[in-house]
């Protein structure tokens, strides 16, 4: 199964171009205050998958070939893949909690576990403690399952197609790093508006790349080690479903959390994730690049 160099160009142009097109209502309207933001954010996540479809269409490859090359199965060891899925499903919130604890320890975050002041004024007089419990439980269950749909839209592109393509060309280590940069900069239509890190404005576009490179090594390793895209999908999904926002649920309203420093997506979280990103490939190395996940030869 071989690819053309132009496939990477086509994939990136489609994923990036459609991302900017999708975000136009924010740039021509009220920015992150726009009522379009939730819909734009979800729609944007499907643009990498459309990039895969574009490369597939021009290749004329069979469906089964593309599915195998992009990791849509459970890989050579179903047991390993399912164990990895379970590990990231349960482990990601624990890593997020550890990042919060360390953020408090180093003075980067103030929490209010007794009063949950960030949750005051909930509609209908909802008890903040009950709301917190519901958010955590739903985030780990139905929230992760629902969020897995748009997460697949990203992961089929970034880890399913792009990462094996890059590791074949550059090797595992550089392929992981380059894919993290491409993934991070793709968020620019939102991060240039201050998304995720509103306190630093457009600099968020560059700052977020630090997170995507580090976290990208982890979920990229999941893809390469399992031979399946699904552990990466679940890891991305459970992160989006509540692991990032957990810092706001327990934060102190008198000193609101700043994601530049606090939580799993802040500087403290980067340190935690970096330890994992270094440890995993050393303990369980991927000894060769995955087969190229680009354009198979057209069916004859």
- CA-CA gap between termini: 14 Å
Gyration radius, in Å: 19 Å
Number of separate helices: 14
Question: Which H/E pattern describes the elements?
Answer: HHHHHHHHHHHHHH
Number of strands: 0
Low-confidence stretches: 292-300
Estimate the helix proportion, in percent.
55-70%
Sheet-strand content, in percent, reads under 5%
Q: What is the structural class?
A: mainly alpha
The overall pLDDT average reads 93
Overall spatial form? globular
The major sheet is characterized as: none
Structure summarized in a few sentences:
The protein is an all-alpha fold and 300 residues long.
Please provide a written account of the structure.
The protein has 300 residues and is mainly alpha-helical. The chain has a domain of 208 residues. It is globular and about 60 Å long. Helix 4 crosses helix 8, helix 7 packs across helix 8 and helix 7 packs antiparallel against helix 12.
Topology (SSEs and partners):
Blueprint: H1 5-22, H2 24-27, H3 37-44, H4 47-59, H5 63-69, H6 78-105, H7 128-140, H8 142-170, H9 172-186, H10 188-191, H11 204-226, H12 230-243, H13 246-250, H14 267-283
Protein traits:
mainly alpha; single chain; 14 helices; 300 residues; 0% strand; globular
């Amino acid at each position: 199964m071989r690819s053309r160099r132009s496939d990477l160009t086509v994939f990136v142009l489609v994923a990036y171009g459609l991302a900017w097109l999708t975000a136009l209502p924010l740039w021509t309207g009220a920015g992150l205050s726009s009522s379009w933001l939730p819909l734009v954010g979800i729609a944007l996540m499907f643009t990498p998958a459309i990039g895969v479809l574009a490369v597939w269409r021009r290749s004329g490859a069979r469906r089964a070939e593309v599915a195998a090359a992009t990791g849509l199965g459970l890989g050579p060891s179903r047991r390993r893949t399912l164990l990895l899925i379970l590990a990231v499903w349960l482990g990601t919130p624990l890593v997020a909690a550890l990042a919060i604890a360390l953020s408090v320890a180093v003075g980067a975050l103030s929490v209010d576990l007794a009063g949950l002041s960030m949750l005051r004024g909930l509609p209908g007089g909802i008890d903040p403690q009950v709301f917190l419990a519901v958010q955590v439980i739903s985030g780990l269950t139905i929230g992760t399952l629902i969020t897995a749909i748009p997460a697949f839209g990203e992961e089929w592109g970034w880890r399913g197609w792009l990462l094996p393509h890059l590791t074949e060309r550059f090797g595992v280590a550089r392929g992981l790093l380059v894919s993290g940069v491409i993934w991070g900069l793709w968020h620019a239509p939102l991060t240039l508006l201050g998304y995720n890190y509103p306190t630093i404005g457009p600099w968020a576009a560059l700052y977020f790349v630090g997170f995507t490179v580090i976290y990208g090594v982890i979920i990229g390793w999941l893809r390469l080690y399992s031979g399946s895209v699904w552990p990466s999908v679940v890891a991305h999904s459970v992160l989006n479903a509540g692991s990032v926002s957990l810092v706001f649920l327990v934060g102190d309203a008198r000193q609101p959390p700043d994601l530049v420093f606090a939580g799993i997506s802040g500087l403290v979280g980067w340190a935690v994730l970096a330890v994992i990103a270094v440890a995993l490939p050393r303990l369980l190395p991927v000894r060769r690049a995955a087969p190229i996940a680009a354009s198979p030869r057209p069916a004859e």
